[in-house]
Amino acid sequence: MSLISVNNLTKIYGSGDTAVTALNNVSLQVNPGEFVAVMGPSGCGKSTLLHLLGGLDRPTGGHVMIDGHNLGDLPDNKLTELRRRRVGFIFQFFNLIPVLTAVENAALPVTLDGVRPAQARAKAVEWLEKVGLGDRQSHRPDQLSGGQQQRVAIARALVAGPALVLADEPTGNLDTHASDEIAALLRQVANEWGRAVVMVTHDPRIAAYADRILFLKDGAIADETILEPKNGKNANVVAGKLQAIE
């Protein structure tokens, strides 16, 4: 059974002559443990799709199913609960709280969910160790590199045990070396830890870490490519497809 099932998803902003169709009848499925990248030109609907998958926005038409739950049928309190427990979010600019340490930032989702402080801290420590930051637990964000801050953000996204991780340009604020490390870590999140990962990116080299790429254009899926594992030419294939649809 698919973890995510999207049918005829449509999002229109505004009305009348000023209406803008951000997504137009998009349908897709994502399985547990699958790493899917979403690419396309600016304004094609990539971030809108991610927001709708995460229940951060409501569609104009169609529906999103996660773990058998139709997001459109959930009242706000249940939608908030599902987001907190079943979906992890990773952003381009990390969104860490400056005055909190790495372990406090990573523990935040379960702390807010009512988990006892000692248990929340233990979960955060476990995930910081898994993402390679076991020796940086007491550091604040301004004491960490960009790549390390993004690792804290990944630990925070995973601490509640979500089935789905949504990443919006997670390497967009990093140098090449750190970008590759984060992309490889997201690959591990899918392969080793069994989470579905949906990542928006503009970088063909980073998208090449995924199992499958969806190319959006004008709010619709223009192409879909399944990548061969560990094929060194994947980035070139992705770049060629992206150029063709732009």
Q: Would you write up a description of this structure?
A:
With 246 residues, the chain is of the alpha/beta class. It has one domain: Rossmann fold (3-Layer(aba) Sandwich). The protein is 36% helix and 25% strand. The chain contains eight helices and ten strands. Strands 6-7-8-3-9-10 form a six-stranded mixed sheet, with helices on both faces. A four-stranded antiparallel sheet has the order 2-1-4-5, covered by helices on one side. Strand 1 and strand 2 form a beta hairpin. Helix 4 packs across helix 5. The longest helix is centred in the last third of the chain and has 16 residues. It starts with a strand and ends with a helix. The model has no long low-confidence stretch (mean pLDDT 93).
Radius of gyration equals: 18 Å
Number of strands: 10
One letter per element, helices H and strands E, the order comes to: EEEHEEHEHHHEHEHEEH
Shape: globular
CATH architecture: 3-Layer(aba) Sandwich
Low-confidence stretches: none
How would you sum up this structure in a few lines?
By secondary structure, this protein is an alpha/beta fold. The chain has helices spanning 46-53, 76-86, 102-112, 117-130, 146-158, 176-191, 204-207, 234-245, and strands at 4-13, 20-30, 35-39, 61-66, 69-70, 87-90, 164-168, 196-200, 212-217, 220-226. The mean pLDDT is 93.
Features:
globular; alpha/beta; 6-stranded mixed β-sheet; Rossmann fold; 4-stranded antiparallel β-sheet; 246 residues
